[in-house]
Amino acid sequence: MTLISSSRPRTDRPRPTRPGTGRALTHALVVALALAIAVPVAWVLLASLKQKSEFFGSPWTLPEGLHLENYIDAFVDAHMGQYFLTSVLVTALGLVLVLAVSVPAAYVIARYEFRGRGLVELALLGGLFVNVNYIVVPIFLMLVDWDRALVDVFPGGFFIDNPAILSLVYAATSIPFTIYLLTAYFRSIPVEYEEAAALDGASRLRIMTTIMLPMARPAVTTVILFDFLAYWNDFIISLTLLPGDNKTLQVGLLNLFTAQKGAADYGRLYAGMVIVIVPVLLVYALIQRRLIEGMASGGVKG
């Protein structure tokens, strides 16, 4: 008699991964990245409060006191306060110019049918691949030629060593990215909102400013963040177009580094670094919060 086994063959199946394991790894990675960013920033902040004699010991020791004279010396003696105001002016003016041009242009490209629209979009896409640092010398030579042509009107020059012209160059070079991002977001917004506003008698300008622009707040916030970081952290363009006393904060920091390296006054140097870093961190924190709020409140509600 043959016995037939009623047991089924075993199949080897992979054990499912515990959801808590992946979450723990994600949290560990986030904590590691946060520490990699926070530790150097905290070290620079503490070093900016040390006296000159404290740098000859261990670099990890805490400062003996709040030596705030480093910030006063950096602001006044090293002219970092003047450079800070120049950077704020250049960055703010550049953001105003790029938004004033890019928002209407992106809305028109996204919603209007006109001859040559495809060519305009292709040109904007091509502008995304142009590195501004590679064309800074032609821009400088062009501005020098314009100053020579207007030497009778502006003997001291107008286009070179002018923070307003630097803001204009910043805005012009960031227009392709800004329009590209805003156009994509405007196209994702349903046209029903515009149709409803048009039935109520709203003009195109009012639709763009009161309906489309608030709904595109996440995209506008994103371009403000990226353009702000590009303008504030720029070094090559500002060094080339502002060769005089109207330096930006990044160029001023290089001069401070060169001067204090020979004098071994590292406290003032690190104070200058903090002056450069803190505005970026504050703006990023504010923009990130508003970006999340805008994304949560956006979209079509049924």
Automatic annotation (TrEMBL):
Coiled coil residues, start to end: none
Q: Which GO terms describe its cellular component?
A: plasma membrane
Annotated segments matching region Disordered:
1-21
Biological process terms in GO annotation: transmembrane transport
Can you tell me where the transmembrane regions are?
A: 24-46, 83-110, 122-144, 164-186, 207-232, 269-287
Task: Name the membrane topology term.
Answer: Multi-pass membrane protein
Where does the ABC transmembrane type-1 domain start and stop, copy by copy? Answer: 84-287
Compartments it resides in: Cell membrane
Its keywords, alphabetically, are: Cell membrane, Membrane, Transmembrane, Transmembrane helix, Transport
Q: Which CDD domains does the record associate with it?
A: TM_PBP2 (cd06261)
Q: Which Pfam families does this UniProt record tie to the protein? A: BPD_transp_1 (PF00528)
SUPFAM superfamilies assigned to the protein according to its UniProt record, in alphabetical order: MetI-like (SSF161098)
Keyword Transmembrane helix recorded = yes
Question: Which PANTHER family does the annotation name?
Answer: DIACETYLCHITOBIOSE UPTAKE SYSTEM PERMEASE PROTEIN NGCG, MALTOSE TRANSPORT SYSTEM PERMEASE-RELATED
Protein family per UniProt: Belongs to the binding-protein-dependent transport system permease family.
Stated name of the protein: Sugar ABC transporter permease
